[in-house]
Amino acid sequence: MLRIKMKQLFSIMSFFVFVVLFSTCSAPKHEVKEYNKGLHIVPLPLQLTEKEGVFGLNANTKIIIQENDEIKPVVTQFNQRMTSALGQALAITSDTPSKNYIQFSLDDTCDQGGEGYCLSVTPDGVTIKSKSPRGLFYGMQTLLQLLPAEVESKSKITSVDWDIPCVEISDEPRFKWRGMHLDVCRHFLPVDFIKKQLDVMAMYKLNTFHWHLTEDQGWRIEIKKYPKLTEIGSIRIDEGKEYGGYYTQEEIKEVVAYAAERFIDVVPEIELPGHSLAALTGYPHLSCEGGPFKVRNVWGVEPDIYCAGNEETFEFLEDVIDEVTQLFPYEYFHIGGDEAPKKRWETCKRCQGRIKSEGLADEHELQSYFIKRAEAMLLKRNKKLIGWDEILEGGLAPSAAVMSWRGEKGGIEAAEQGHDVVMTPGNWVYLDHYQGSSKVEPVAIGGYTTLEESYGYEPVPKELEAEKAKHILGTQGNVWTEYMYTPEIAEYRIYPRIIALAEVGWTAKDKKNFDGFLTRMDNQFVRLDHHGVNYHIPLPEGPSNNVAFLDSISLTFTTTRPIDMVYTIDGSEPDESSAAYIGPLSFSDNTTLKIRSVLSSGKMSKVRTINVKKETLLAAQAVENVASGINLKLKEGEYYSVASLGSTDDWESRTLTDPKEGAKLFDYKEPSAAVLSGYVEIPDDGVYEFSTDLDQFFIGDRKLIDNDGEVKRFSRNDASIALQKGLHPIKAVFLNNVYGGWPHIWSGLRISYRKQGAEKFESIPLENFKH
């Protein structure tokens, strides 16, 4: 009996162990992160059906491929990702096991076009089919997005289960042209940065990289026949120092090959006839006036352009185009064509002679003549010309395509004429615009384009009938780098808006939904973290960084899209466990408020520190015999910081009473420094917030605003102070220089204020200042 009982006990224990082991095998080994729950594919596929179950990818999973060299590069990149995240490569075979496999195959039965694919995930295995290697590559990108976000890690991850939800996907892009433009002339960006962007572009199925390589501010591509283009034309003087950089032809080839591996076509841009000052600095005889020139260190449009009447200009461009086209295999070649002032052509004897000899009506037709000659050079080399919408002026070259950037009008006109068009209107796709308040974001060129606005762009204008709409090739995000002083700032502008535009270019119009996109982006942000991308996180907006009050004050914060905010009032840095902002914050004592935004992944924005200070009214001063105007001390010289002014007294003194007189005193080409002093009349008792782009601004002995060492544009250092009605002494320092490409005088000498509670600032007129 004892033996029987022992056998029974053993059976019971064996069954219990089996149950425990079975439960352990079938249950997830790790908790699934919130951002990994559900499907997060970006861009959203054309057709997606969710099925029951998951496919568990593991170290024993095999990759099945046909004996086809075209497929191998796709599989190699997939296996590189597996090697990084799983810690080992997956075995590759041509045999088909019954389960635990991922199969890549070229298959005409997947009727989704040349870039489309069919993806099937079952508990036994994964199949990706396409008519082309490019389609397989995009299917592979979708497969990676079905895996946890940690698959993008550059090192082995042991904290997740590599489960892929069972789905059936049939997918293809809406548009042929899905691109990103990058200006490397205003600010040079190294090869490693370019490759990084190509990696991320590939993740989101972007297929065109528009590389803006020449400008007034720098020539960035080696041309062996014309070495001065880079020896001289790649270097400018910024804040008294040399700034430059260019790509050798070997580096260009390296980038083009890297892009090709990711099925990204590279379109070079060589600007003509305008934006050519860097070239003219090295070869001034190609201009109308002969120089000498300096590479432009100021943003904006340069009047000196290539001389259209000089035959040597076209010989030069023929040589340049010949070298460049050999480096870029893609069919399109961008010639710019934008912002070409005709001022020099109007007075140039050779250009006027060309107009007469060719029977042209005016300088606009001369530009058309110029563009058509460039097109002929490209056609000889089997390239298609594409340019900004100004190439429409004076008549469009027959085979040219247009990028419509000044709104959609140019694109509509070109499509109506039967020309292909890439829609790139600034309101939606210019990624140098602000995506948050200019009062809290790093300085930008201006404009305001939120993530939602970029996502909501529709590339096919409603004015076009279906027959003409077929000429819309697609769209791209344009990245102009005037105010992108570092690679980190460039990424801060680019992401996540370029990902929104990736969905605009790929996903069917009726399937787009911004709220759904935001939900899916929670997962994508983690992927970007693994690539080290410095993407934009909306900052808390509202109050300035220095807030005064009399009795108590309530501060309200907003963000440009729904996102949590956390804050502290004890001086510590806020983290995920800090108090959540759920409404206005009230203060009746001096407080240092620190607030930041936080994503669902835990990634946080920069901290905004708000100094909240209780004040009494600063007493006005009794001053007799005052008159309107302000005192000004002026001295010549290049000064890039207030400290560089030193303590010398060699100032020229005068009094300004006419606003126009102040503007006439300063020209950025003749640098100088000025100190303005006097009194400002405050109309009523109260707290006043001041704003200025001047370097420093004092009220009494208090330095209220300090912009020293920054680009003086779109004041980001506003501050408030409690003032009694009457006259208050003020002082302001103004350094008339070019800082970060922005001539300070272009901001003017304005000082603005608003009484606490008022919506808008008002510029204080000169007559309200006293001396």
TrEMBL record:
It is an enzyme of class 3 (hydrolase). Keywords: Glycosidase, Hydrolase. It catalyses: Hydrolysis of terminal non-reducing N-acetyl-D-hexosamine residues in N-acetyl-beta-D-hexosaminides. The keyword Hydrolase applies. Gene3D superfamilies: Chitobiase/beta-hexosaminidase domain 2-like, Glycosidases. Residues 634-759 form the PA14 domain. CDD domains: GH20_chitobiase-like. Its EC number is 3.2.1.52. It comes from the Bacteria. PANTHER family: BETA-HEXOSAMINIDASE, BETA-N-ACETYLHEXOSAMINIDASE. Belongs to the glycosyl hydrolase 20 family. This is beta-N-acetylhexosaminidase. It comes from Splendidivirga corallicola.
